[in-house]
């Protein structure tokens, strides 16, 4: 293949891979900063709390440098991935859905926030039936809420919808017991 | 013969109606998530970890083990009918299985993989029952230095030896180390890697990491690849009954696959990829129908790797239960379930928690029987799951991801960490970094640190303890060979046939 020979002759700098390498080097820097911030108690002399952080710091630094070298030599991204263009718009809408959930979960409660997230993610993936998605999202969120919150005893933030339904459910249970 | 007595006791635990119900629930759920692309056993068990606060350890481990085995069965259905491997270990099954489905023999492919999974899963479970007590006897002589060296070996094998690149595998592992160290150091009470944030003092929950990498990361990745073209579901045709010729071609492949998968799974290296690929290569070499490989699909190429996959899944339980050494993401999350009960897996587990261990092993036999029934006569049900459209599937996964994460402590901080890890998971998927080492690293690094400090305390701060004990030295040498060996070999190979061939960026 002629392209691979050209690559062999002069490997091109792979920018995304280089950014990953630099990002990891920055992480190694953050690890170093946090490692140096660990106070060492003079009372404990054998193996303090800093030995393993130091090992991690050194390992991270070496590995990120190796990745940067690999990026300069042409990167390692699989061909298949390079050929497929990234759908940034779809990813963006999914991300908006997640942020909406994060912002709304406390004021509106789990169910309402989940329905909004559900509809946005479906939209990002190309679904064009928002009303059907609202209904599906509501059913799923309620199933998740009552499955987890009531059966598993996990406490998820309750909002308006959950409080209403909990009141209804509790009164039904009381009626059945009576 | 001691083992048989323990097993009988185990069956008396597993055969209680409640535990049978957990087993049925686990296997059903496991098959479903195995069939659904984008969901795996590691993610599912992570989301269900809160159950450990509600039920007895026997019940939750029977549930988790059912999910673990069920996902292996379900994954092969997706591979065969959709050509999208549901699990990484079923990549090879897709090679021949999907070709068989396309040439109208999907029924036989599903049958050989389900029955092969049953045969190999049962053999593998027998292997666990008989090998585990042997390993336990051996492991009782381990000191902290040996444990530490064993963990180092496991770190190297799960990240550097397996997978496409040792540098990227190790990078994932070290990211896991960093996450694992966040929080208060248990021995000295000092906060580490918390960036001064009080929310991080308790550390990062494994649920958040698993859900972030596997659910959020996967959703981003699938959203980003909408241009990649879709795989179509091959309609299920052909009878589920195998002909005599197909049985004759399958049974040897099952046994060979099981014999290959179990030992490799039981090594402190783990991973189902290697035995499945090995089994595929062997079956292709031994087959009398070589012309079917890569064309219409050869049944041996489905039977062998499927058996190897399930046997190695059983094998992974040996180091996990006997040494507390998880070698897959799922096993690492199960280990954290043990920790949540305050139980430490290791040789003592077989003495102190005999009911739990043997009940779990017995339930694996039951799970295999349930699974072969669930996956053959009821196969039509699972095929229908494949038709769930991607938008609603991934949106639904994220609703459950929110429940699992927000439910831990109702703190939006957890959601922020979840989404950041989801972004990282996307990059890892896109740039070919393995994700399992992150989970294994974050669970095992603090345990390695404990053993290291214990060893150093016993030896009065003398480092030589790690290389003066012969076993510890052997393990560390093996780890070193595992790290350096492949590179030297590649270099020698490269020197030997120095041609125009250039492998771009072999990091």
TrEMBL record, chain A:
**Sorted alphabetically, which keywords does the UniProt record give?**
Membrane, Transmembrane, Transmembrane helix
Q: Which InterPro entries match?
A: DUF1468 (IPR009936)
Which Pfam families does the record associate with it? TctB
User: Which residue windows are coiled coil?
Assistant: none
Is the Membrane keyword given for this protein? yes
For this protein, the parts annotated as crossing the membrane are 18-39, 51-72, 92-122, 134-161
Locate the DUF1468 domain: which residues? 19-155
Keyword check for Transferase: no
Official protein name in the record:
Putative tricarboxylic transport membrane protein
What organism is recorded for this protein? Mesorhizobium tianshanense
From TrEMBL, chain B:
- Transmembrane stretches in the record are 6-25, 32-53, 59-82, 108-132, 138-162, 169-186, 206-223, 356-382, 394-421, 433-452, 472-492
Which stretches make up the DUF112 domain? 20-440
**Among its keywords, does the record have RNA-binding?**
no
Q: Which UniProt keywords apply?
A: Membrane, Transmembrane, Transmembrane helix
InterPro entries linked to this entry: DUF112_TM
Q: What is this protein called?
A: Putative tricarboxylic transport membrane protein
* Organism this protein belongs to: Mesorhizobium tianshanense
